[in-house]
Amino acid sequence: MEFPGLLVYWIIVVLMMMGLYIVVAQNNLVKKIVGLNVFQVSVFLLYITMGKIAEGTAPILADEIEIYSNPLPHVLILTAIVVGVATTSLGLALVVRIHEAYGSIEDDEILEQESDA
Amino acid sequence: MIEAHLPILQVIIPLIAAPVCVFLRHPLITWALATVISWVCLAISIMLLQQVQASGEIIYEIGGWAAPWGIEYRVDTLSAWVMVIVTSVGAVVTPYAKLSAEKEIDRDRLYIFYAMLLLCETGLLGITITGDAFNLFVFLEISSLSTYVLVSMGKDRRGLTAAYRYLIMGTLGATFYIIGVGLMYMMTGTLNIADLAKLIPDVAETRTVQAALAFLTVGLAIKLALFPLHLWLPNAYAFAPSVVTVFLAATATKVAVYALIRIVFTIFGGVDILESVEIRHVLAALAIAAMFAGSAVAIYQTNIKRMLAYSSLAQIGYMILGLSMNSVTGVTAGLVHLFNHAMMKGGLFMVMGCVVYRIGSAKLDDMAGLGKQMPVTMGAFVAGGLSLIGVPLSVGFISKWTLLQAAFEKGWWPVAALIVVSSLLAVIYIWRVVEVAYFREPAAGQVAVKEAPFLMLIPMLLLIGASFYFGIDGTSTLTVAGDAAKALIGGLK
Amino acid sequence: MIPEQVIPWALGLPLLGAFGIWITGRWPNIRESVTLITSLLVFVLVASLFDNVAAGENPSWQWGEMLPGLGISFVLEPLGMIFAGIASFLWIVTTLYTIGYMRGHHEKNQTRFYICFAVAISSAIGIAFAGNMLTLFVFYEVLTISTFPLVTHSGTPEAKRAGRVYLGILIGTSIGLQLVGIIWTYSLTGTLDFTPGGIMEGKVQPTIVAILLALYVFGIGKAAVMPFHRWLPAAMVAPTPVSALLHAVAVVKAGVFTVLKITVYIFGIDFLSELGASTWIAYMAAMTILLASLVAMRKDNLKARLAYSTISQLSYIVLGAMMATGLGIIGGGMHIVMHAFGKITLFFCAGAIMVASHKTEISQMRGLGRKMPITFICFLIGSLSIIGLPPFGGVWSKWYLALAAAETDQVIFVAVLMISSLLNVAYLLPIVVRGFYNDPAPDDHDQHHDTDNDHADANAAAHHPGDASGPHQWKWAGMTEAPPLCVGALAFTAAGCLVLFVYADMVYQFLLPVVEGTVK
Fold it and tell me: Complex ipTM, two decimals?
């Protein structure tokens, strides 16, 4: 396979790794959630691109359309987006509560307080 | 008529009851509703198990759309078995929750607690019953999201950070899973588990499908807290409200194990993935590492809820070890341990709930002299502990017997020795608690406490009693687990 | 009642009794009557089965299936009958003794004590009647756990430490070794039923037989073969009736009984002697006999000395089993009976001395025999029986063991038995001599001339509650004896040693069918 192969997959993988890296490396709890979102979005892209068929159009029944893209991944991703939004909002809500309880949203400062307790 | 719709009712009833709880708001009414619903769910799952045993697999097409386009629910012995585990734990947890939750959760948030509990049960039952890989993801997230909320509800602020870390890890796990599903969909064009099982063998050699397997396994390993992906679990169990810990410890990881079984034995069953790829040895090695690491770390814990959480890691190791043996006896051992561990660990966490209810702490040092003050509770702890060690007449013994038998059948002598040695580590950490509770005089400032209230004792004794009833009559559980195992392994050959 | 119905009753009655004890715990007199009546009834039930077994029947009873194809089943045979008979008979005597002792000693938590005792007896009978290895193992573990609260009865730090050793070794060996052996056996042979002639022949390779045998013999920690013997001296912190019945009879005999049982019914004597797989374990047992006797000589604490003596005597039985001859098995079986009567007498005496004078160290017992003549005479009788001198029961079992050793051409074992007898003389008789011939020492029960601080402390702590109220004595005809119930019990068992000398042949004839065909 010639380099870079399927470019779109490269983009997805790069996005995915960026997201994962942010989750792991960031100290700030909100930034971790941002990273999580990037990670999830890359997966959404993975699904959506795989539904695309070359020269296919939107799957609307009409006489002149013969090739159309697979609509199922889009539907799945709609669900996944909803789940992602729910996760993000819950995560952010937790961050707010953590801020109230610890007065900080930096992971190391929280850990310090926890080890004191 | 209604029998035909049991599979959907199993999921839809708690799903509808959850928002109803939010509308009702009154703590007592929501509690009553949650209790009734959890018992209804138990009844349904028992009826489903009977149906399956009488007439084989049940297939239910949602909205009448035929698979593989529509979503179908499939109930076989295995899923009915796991549903019985989940619902029976749910049915004893809700009565218990009344007092325990009042003590450990703010009163104005109690209705959310019951709503989330029902939602979590919905998710877990959905994972078990669905025959669609993507639908499984949705239910996985329903149960996970509600679990994060539940974990964060306690009064200890560390519950918040535990929930947050669990959220990050859990979401990563779920996303890994969905990547795996996506990759399988690319190669087969289907999301139906039964359909996947048919189509995967043709494409099993492709890199894509192998990557899918890796993503699925890692994603679920995070959810089931397989060593070394367990880091979220100890804090989540230790700082969640006690009743939440009971429910999670007895059900959530079990259902994740179920999902892994579905992937490995059903979807990849056709290619006998455990034989052809080195995944088996990886799983076995991780399981053994979990058995030792979990038990060894448990010995050094001062918070007993945390100690039991680490012990759960070790017990998950036993389950995975059984599965990784890829033989009927091995899988039976893993499956029977799902049930057995749910009973004993649920019972033990209930004991800790009673202790926390009375003394407001789960620290070992605060438990001095409890043996006299709370004789029933601590007696239950000893009984549950004996079961964890695997003393005869307890369910732990049945699990260990079957697992060892499987190891001998395979000729894995060293593994058998490791199982035995690691189970002896349980003697040490259970013994530490017994020593403090029975032989140490209460500290000077310690207030004498009474036995826990009946409403908490009875569910606790039910679970502990079950962990001895099914230890004496191990045949009944082993038969069901054995049937399920035969169906899984039979799918391969 | 037909024998099949008696079995569940014999097992269940002690449990019912335990329940009754729990309910009546508030009223000591009623509680102890319940114990006594239960023990009487249990013995009557067990005794009623003797004739059936003597007639060659094997009544059996099955209770549920614990694992598919493996149930909890009970089958009677002579070895088990003997063990159950001894345990249930001595339970009656011990109950009488216990009542005197526990009251004399003002022990706490007596209700719990009696409950655990009853459960322990029930599990001992379960072990005796077990029809397969699984059943035996189940009751074996129940016995360990039910005796644990008895060992840690006093709740002192010493008791706690002893409890750790007790549980650690017994649970560790049974789960770590014995259970592995059992499951391995099951996976090789497909059965765990006790079958005359064994279940292994033709199914198991010789090397594996040797490994399995080691797993069993060392896994049966209750048989106290070195190096897994430490729990027995540790268990001596328990009140003396526990040491007497459980740690000289029920628990330890459950261990050696299991060894006999697996030798005869799992491995098969012929199969073992053909392979010679058991010889090296026989050497381990011989070593235990001698080493434990030597350690016993150095113990100043009376109960500790008796404990090591028990370890040594238990290995007689293990040795008998491991010689894998019919006579060895019979000798071992008889030794269960003979040693039980002898050792329980000695422990009763030790307890009586403790109750009457609060003395636990042998060095403090100078001249005590003049104050407590009955106790010391009975101690002498018990000692002579243990040493193996006529006219006491102990001579017969040693006789058959020595015969078995001669039969297998193992002269070294004959020598071991002889040397051990001499060692017994050396560590048992001086106690009596000191008691009768030396001048009474000034009252020195606060001093410890101990060589073994550990046990002295344990016992000082154990009898602490009694200290407050002073020794509990029974003064009669110039003697200062322990309460009558205690003295009566120990005199009774001492007499038993004498009676057994006369009726030893009955035991022999009763056990003969076990090894049918192998004894000429």
Answer: 0.91
